[in-house]
Each structure stands twice: as structure tokens, then as C-alpha cells.
Design a protein that fits this description.
Elements lengths: L2 H12 L3 H6 L4 E8 L5 E8 L4 H5 L3 H13 L7 E9 L12 E8 L11 E10 L5 H14 L22 H11 L8 E8 L11 H20 L5 E6 L7 H18 L6 E6 L5 H19 L5 H4 L3 E6 L10
Parallel strand pairs: 2-3, 4-7, 6-9, 7-8
Antiparallel strand pairs: 1-2, 4-5, 5-6
Length: about 325
């Protein structure tokens, strides 16, 4: 990929067009003058990754106009006035194939302290998406940019040692940037579902065994999600490492058996698997952590500032205790 295209991608990112910038990865280009009158009018022809060709060819007038405006402003390819763009498939790239598999990433918020000292809510949020995972490289690259920033610090400035992005730990500057990246996903690209419990309304009989409380609610939340999206294809569930460490194998077994029973009773013939990974290993787990943090703050603190950045992706927020009147503490 040429330096010109890399510069173009950076300008797109600076203008908030992260998803468009990402699609120019591996692109090549050529220029042609199609009107020699008065110095000439120029067209830039991009040879793009096959998996993005349809999206580029169907760009709306606003995005297309912005691309032309930026290309002309940066004198792309040392051309004269640029007034048109065209997209073709880069035949040097082998089209990557993806299985038709749905990915579901899970994060939980709140604690399992069922007393006045604990959080008011406990919730799971689910991020649903398919490959290719867009913006992955952009978010990963931003982490490396933050590490490289340490090389330019003055002696007394604070270093940033970021192994993963974590909403409640990241500073306000980093948090704003990550939410800007997440909010740039196309609306149809991801779906979010939240399963919410107001803890004082949960019967103590259900909370005495913390491992069972976690696995039973996660199992039920997953089946609620599968019902809402009308699951009809193979899926993979990835959670952060189990929040309650006790009886890990028992928890995993309970979750899997619950999903198996749901699929059997609804006569859904698909394959699935569930994994528990460290969030540092997965950009998607870091994304759902940010999303869940924003939704949790809405319910816990009445703060909707960051929630508003991701609300367009929300399939449903289910407060499972909203119709319960009795409080146990």
C-alpha cells in the first residue's frame, strides 16, 4: 500500500470516518485525466479489497463527495483538480472467505455483593457481529500509538502502559477516543442486548450460591438473546474469564446444557461453542466492555453521556426485575 493511501486513511480518521479509512487497507490506485481543457480534470481509480467492493460501489453522495473533496485538497497523486473517483476490484488480492457464523461477545457489570454496600444493578451485555471484524486493526493500532507516545514524553510526564482497553480504568482522553471509534460502526454491523437485574429485588434464595447465580443468569440471558435475534446459524460465544472462579467446570457445563436445551426445544439445528478468554486477547471483548460500562452507568448513576454514543446499536435492554415490587434490602 502506498504512502499516499496511508496519508489519505489518516485524514479520513481525523475526520471521524474510521470505517471508510479501514476499507482502504491493501488498496492501490491510478489516476487519469479525463478532460484536458483548462489544466484538466482528474479521476482517481482505487483498486480495493474484493470484500469491500460492493460497499464502495454503493457509496452515498455525501461520502463520495467527501472523498473527492479530501483527495483534491491533499493533491492526491500530484494530480490537477480531482472531480471523480472510481472503484475496481484489486485482482492481486485473494478474496478472503468467511464462514457464515455469528459471534456473540459477553461482558458483565456490577458485583455479587447483595447488600447495601454492593452495586445497585447486575447486568450482562452482548455484542453480536459477523466477520470480517471491522475497525479491529484501527483499535489495535491506536493502542500501539499510545505506547509509542511514551517515547516522546518529558521526564515528569505520566507513561501509559496499556495492555488492553478497559472503560473504567482508561483515562478520559482514551475513553473518548475509543467511544468515537465504536460509534463509527455502521448501524447494521453490530447489535447489542442487555440483561439487567436490580439487585435488591432478587430473592436471596437465588443469590446464596454466587457461582450458580452467575451461570444461571448468563444461561437465561443467552437464551433470551438467541430468541430475540431468531438464531438460525452456527454461533460462537466468547466471554471474559469467568467472573466467579469457584466451580468453573460446573458453571460452563450449566451454561452449555441450557443452550443445548433451548436449541432442542425450539427445534433449531445449528452448531455452537462457548469460550472464556482474557479480554486482552480480544478487541471485541474490549469493545463490549466499553458498551456494557456505558449502559451500566445509565442504570447505576443516571449518566447517559456515553450511552448516547452507542444507543443506536441496541436491540433491547431488558430489566428483568422492573415489575417486581418487593425489595429484600
Amino acid at each position: 500500500m502506498s504512502k499516499e493511501i496511508r496519508k489519505f486513511q489518516e485524514i479520513l480518521k481525523q475526520n471521524g470516518k474510521f470505517d471508510l479509512a479501514y476499507k482502504f487497507d491493501k488498496a492501490e490506485y491510478e489516476t487519469s485525466c479525463y478532460d484536458n481543457w483548462n489544466g484538466g480534470l482528474w479521476r482517481v481509480i482505487f483498486f480495493v479489497d474484493p470484500k469491500y467492493f460492493i460497499e464502495f460501489s454503493e457509496l452515498g453522495d455525501e461520502d463520495r463527495g467527501l472523498l473527492i473533496k479530501l483527495l483534491d485538497a491533499m493533491c492526491f497523486g500530484d494530480c490537477g483538480e480531482i472531480t471523480d473517483i472510481e472503484f475496481k476490484i484489486n485482482k492481486n488480492l485473494i478474496a478472503e472467505t468467511f464462514e457464515d457464523v455469528l459471534y456473540i461477545f459477553v461482558d458483565e457489570s456490577g458485583d455479587v455483593d447483595f447488600s447495601q454496600k454492593g452495586s445497585k444493578h447486575y447486568m450482562f451485555s452482548f455484542l453480536v457481529k459477523k466477520r470480517p471484524f471491522k475497525l479491529h486493526e484501527t483499535i489495535a493500532s491506536y493502542r500501539y500509538a499510545l505506547l509509542e507516545r511514551n517515547l516522546k514524553l518529558e521526564k515528569n510526564e505520566k507513561r501509559l502502559d496499556i495492555e488492553r482497553f478497559h472503560a473504567c480504568e482508561d483515562n478520559s482522553f482514551v475513553r473518548e477516543r475509543i467511544f468515537d471509534l465504536i460509534s463509527s460502526f455502521e448501524k447494521e454491523a453490530i447489535k447489542i442486548y442487555s440483561y439487567i437485574l436490580e439487585k435488591p429485588k432478587v430473592n436471596p434464595e437465588k443469590t446464596s450460591d454466587k457461582a450458580s447465580f452467575y451461570s444461571e443468569n448468563l444461561k437465561y440471558a443467552i437464551t433470551r438473546l438467541l430468541d430475540k435475534i431468531g438464531i438460525d446459524k452456527d454461533f460462537i460465544i466468547i466471554t471474559d474469564n469467568l467472573a466467579v472462579k469457584k466451580d468453573k467446570n460446573k458453571q460452563i457445563g450449566a451454561i452449555k446444557s441450557g443452550i443445548k436445551e433451548y436449541l432442542r426445544s425450539n427445534k433449531i439445528n445449528v452448531r455452537y461453542d462457548i469460550f472464556h478468554h482474557s479480554s486482552a486477547s480480544s478487541v471485541n471483548l474490549q469493545i463490549v466492555d466499553y458498551i456494557n460500562w456505558a449502559i451500566f452507568r445509565k442504570y447505576e448513576k443516571g449518566d447517559t453521556r456515553f450511552y448516547e454514543k452507542i444507543s443506536k446499536y441496541i436491540l433491547d435492554e431488558e430489566d428483568m426485575t422492573k415489575d417486581r415490587d418487593k425489595r429484600y434490602y
